[in-house]
């Protein structure tokens, strides 16, 4: 009788924990700040490079990229990295409308290969585009995009700064986890908006943490004023306070607008579900 084998491996993915020694080491943060300059985007590429595309088109395709990442439960780094690839590619190569979703799909594929244990497949991405792109074009575009990015693919994103900034602020563990989750959501939302391309990844991360702490009313409970918090973040990141405050204001406006839109949609759905069907609407 053949012996049965018992597999005790977990089906869920195992991820490395956040190492406090690395997060508290100022040299790691300094290297991130120096390296992020290699992966910045030309914030005027719609005026200088793209003649057919618009910021609204970019927002639509980036929201589509976010939906794909959410449905496939990709790691948080995949979406932010793929948008970085897309913006840097659009900064140097003029595209037509017909090629925008193809470029976005390839950027998602490349980012998932770099940051995802189980990367997205080309066939799956073609399906998500409703077969508007050809799978045979994807390998050629992978080489094209990588070449135009000069093969600098290990980009530093805003997500990479969250751990370092959070460990520099006196937070309880539960609060730190909640702030990280909120800040990551704000980074996702800001990635949809082209106006945030003018800021470095570190400034976006600092503004996201400030917005999260302010939203959780941490400043009122901790004795830290918002001004003290922004002073600490600007000193830690070595950036101008005005830039961080401007980014924070724009991020708060974006969050409020997003909440207003979501609330309006919920109210509209409640109205529809509560409205009785008219007799004339029934097809006998």
Automatic annotation (TrEMBL):
The protein, known as: Uncharacterized protein
One GO term (biological process): cell division
PROSITE patterns in alphabetical order: CYCLINS
Domain Cyclin C-terminal positions: 156-278
Coiled-coil intervals, chain numbering: none
Pfam families: Cyclin_C, Cyclin_N
Membership in a protein family: Belongs to the cyclin family.
Domain Cyclin-like: 63-147
Gene3D superfamilies (alphabetical): Cyclin-like
PANTHER family in the cross-refs: CYCLINS
UniProtKB keywords: Cell cycle, Cell division, Cyclin
């Amino acid at each position: 009788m053949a012996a049965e084998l018992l597999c005790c491996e977990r089906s869920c993915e195992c991820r490395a924990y956040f190492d406090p020694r690395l997060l508290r080491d100022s040299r790691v943060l300094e290297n991130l700040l120096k390296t992020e300059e290699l992966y910045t985007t030309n914030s005027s590429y719609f005026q200088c490079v793209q003649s057919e595309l618009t910021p609204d088109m970019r927002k639509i395709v980036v929201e589509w990229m976010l939906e794909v990442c959410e449905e496939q439960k990709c790691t948080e780094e995949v979406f932010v990295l793929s948008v970085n690839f897309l913006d840097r590619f659009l900064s140097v190569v003029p595209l037509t409308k017909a090629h925008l979703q193809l470029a976005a799909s390839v950027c998602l594929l490349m980012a998932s290969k770099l940051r995802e244990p189980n990367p997205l497949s080309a066939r799956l991405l073609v399906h998500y585009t409703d077969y508007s792109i050809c799978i045979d074009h994807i390998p050629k575009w992978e080489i094209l995009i990588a070449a135009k990015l000069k093969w600098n693919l290990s980009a530093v994103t805003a997500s990479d700064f969250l751990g370092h900034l959070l460990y520099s602020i006196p937070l309880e563990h539960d609060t730190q986890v909640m702030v990280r989750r909120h800040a990551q959501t704000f980074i996702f939302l800001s990635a949809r908006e082209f106006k945030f391309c003018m800021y470095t990844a570190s400034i976006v991360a600092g503004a996201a943490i400030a917005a999260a702490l302010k939203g959780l009313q941490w400043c009122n409970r901790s004795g830290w004023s918002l001004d003290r918090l922004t002073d600490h973040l600007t000193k830690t990141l070595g950036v101008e306070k005005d830039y961080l405050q401007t980014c924070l204001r724009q991020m708060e406006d974006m969050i409020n607008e997003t909440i207003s839109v979501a609330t309006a949609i919920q109210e509209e759905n409640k109205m529809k579900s509560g409205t009785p069907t008219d007799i004339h609407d029934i097809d006998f």
